[in-house]
Amino acid sequence: MTLILDPDEPAGWREAPPAHGVTTGGSRLTDGLNPEQREAVEYRGPALLIVAGAGSGKTRVLTHRIASLIESREAWPSQILAITFTNKAAAEMRERVEALLGEGASGMWISTFHSACVRILRREAESIGLSGTFTIYDSADQRTILKRIIKELDADTLGFTPASAQAKISKLKNELADVESYARNANTNDPQEVMFLEIFRQYTRRLRDASALDFDDLIAETVYLFRAFPKVAALYQRRFRHILVDEYQDTNHAQYSLIREFTRPVPAERVREMESHGINVRALTDAAGGIPGASLTVVGDSDQSIYAFRGADIRNIVEFERDFPGARVVLLEQNYRSTQNILSAANAVISNNFDRKEKKLWTADGDGDKITGYTGYTAHDEAQFVADEIESLHRSGVAYRDIAVFYRTNAQTRALEEIFVRSALPYRVVGGTKFYERAEIKDAMAYLIAVANPLDELALRRILNTPKRGIGPATETALASFAEQNEISFRQAMRAASGLGLGPKVTGAISGLATTLDEAAAMLVPSAEGLAAGTNAGAAKVSDVLVFLMERSGLLDTLRNSRDPQDETRAENVEELVAQTRDFDRENPDATLVDFLTQVSLVAAADELDDASGTVSLMTLHTAKGLEYHAVFLTGIEEGLLPHQMSASEPGGPAEERRLFYVGITRARKRLYLSLAMSRAQFGEVAVAMPSRYLQEIPEGLIDWRQSPGMATSRGGTQPRALNARREGGAWGTRDRDLERFSVTKSAKPKTEWANRVTGTVRDNGDLTLAAGDRIRHTDFGEGKVTQVTGEGSKKVAHVSFDTAGQKKLLIKIAPIEKL
């Protein structure tokens, strides 16, 4: 094996860092920090755990700690590896450090786990038998492969689905188990286990044949690389002397193992070997001749650990002090985001979880407004309350982009979206079908992937008959069989299509596609001068290759000339992809096609949030992690939804759901709204809902109930159902105690006294025209006066001042109104 020097590394080497435990003096980097933040920035030692409560300025602490290490010359920028969970968080951290240090910050690795691993694996691919241009498969790609395998094996007869197989494989990989280790412990007498083993084996083989990795592989393969090739690991252990990990409570076993590998010491014999290869390590060695393990700083909050379903292991942060004896722990409790009323509610709720490091969030910014509570009769009624409050906030000067609505499950968006459309509220659902998941974008990307990685059979099969070329499933199967029998790749089989006896038209279509891909690949080869200099000079830009592929394949023309009205939008999406590649080329003049494909594959849901969009954000509580808004609406705070009925009976489930509620509460800066409904349509039936047990944990004086569960009971009952409303004599009613085991119950039909106050119907008002001054009557809101009309055509909106319901905005075309 050849050890290569890192091109990013500075030529000179600094003196050895101060001994562990030494703290640096104050500087401009610690001015304005509270005492705990200052301690976290200045502490120097082998391990530091920063327990950072929500809104306690953890990003500021991390960036100032990095800047402090560089400014005091205790570390070169290239010796710092900072890991976050989203590209957005990584970009923000990098920008903040650069703002503090300017040019002196270049060379740091600040990235997500996956990005860091891709960077290492691209560089070291040959060690583990991969091509440096390996493809990264997303969830949809994984399901496509598993669907084929399950069909070929008839595994569906044993109950296997692509989703279930994918989930099990992902879980195993996150535990660092591969096919061989799973096979050693498999029960060969269980037909289901034998079948899963075969699915797992074939899935692994197909990825390897295609020179592809899935997301879980990125981390698992890096851990494997470091463990199997200690010489390679030593290069990175020597290189990175300060490892900083954000959101440590969300790490799974594989990520935890990767961090352990990065922080292992390098033994003396390995150091001597590195020196013999001309790698300068003398400044880093200790008295025994080895290199001590890197300094580790982790930031997290066990109260915000909400990703157990993805394999996140809360023990990683809870047991940090046991894993790293002598670690310093710093508690950040001062909150700079929310009002005290919001924090008091959050503290009260989370204190009901056991096995947590005790902390109480507090703020110096005052109590603020009370939390607003509301109980609707139905989900539509709840949604109307949310829409009305958003309009009220907007009129008072709060921008739509500073407002968010959270819910536990995606199914809850239906009622919200219906009411928001009718109320003409601008909104967007975060985490819906993302740009790169759209079929036409995946088609265009498959062309680029097939050029970058000729071994990727999945990409080739996707584009084989896209757009339609008369190549059917039988021909595709014949090509695959020919490739297998002759031990050649699918791409080579396409080039040899003339020998398959498929008929002139089909053979011509296959050969034509193969030629197009070969010509595109030739465009990417650097010029002779570029090759001599080891650069990409002379190679075509990514955008030029994409335009060539779209034109030669006819994909764009097919979409443009289609009679399907949706294809016009699809064509625009492909054109947007071309525009994105042009932006990429401009911002990264020396980057390659593989660099572009890597960047695209690592885009996460939270990274697609555009804070500049003037819309209200709707998202699940899981997506809300790490975000903050002026006003937050937490909807569906009901038993069966929060805690979710699937989690309520699982060990640790209610505690995790409580952390989810806590995360939702602590996203709000100034205003927090908690809402629920008395009945909710689920799976085609109407379910009677009860208030969530977690509402009982919020002190009585913190919530101002506009309409409490008690007010919403039938016939104006006086017994309040609000869980934080006390019974006579100060004791909780038996009904409240029953909630601990209560789940949503079904009823045959909704009770008439809970009838929806918001109409479930819309009208087509045709060519109805309204102008300022007109009087109208609305089915729900009664009579009112139009104050102004905005918008054009079918999107005209009437701004109406109702005599009793106040100000509303209505989409004229569908609102249930009549002109008086």
How does this structure look, described?
This protein has 820 residues and is of the alpha/beta class. The protein folds into five domains: 28-126 and 218-330, 3-Layer(aba) Sandwich (Rossmann fold); 135-210, Orthogonal Bundle (Arc Repressor Mutant, subunit A), CATH 1.10.10; 340-431 and 610-711, P-loop containing nucleotide triphosphate hydrolases (Rossmann fold, 3-Layer(aba) Sandwich), CATH 3.40.50.300; 435-605, PCRA, domain 4, CATH 1.10.486; 774-819. The chain is built from 31 helices and 23 strands. The strands form five sheets. A seven-stranded parallel sheet has the order 11-12-10-13-14-9-17. Helix 15 (340-350) packs antiparallel against helix 30 and helix 16 (379-395) packs across helix 17 (413-422). The protein starts with 34 loop residues before the first helix and ends with a strand.
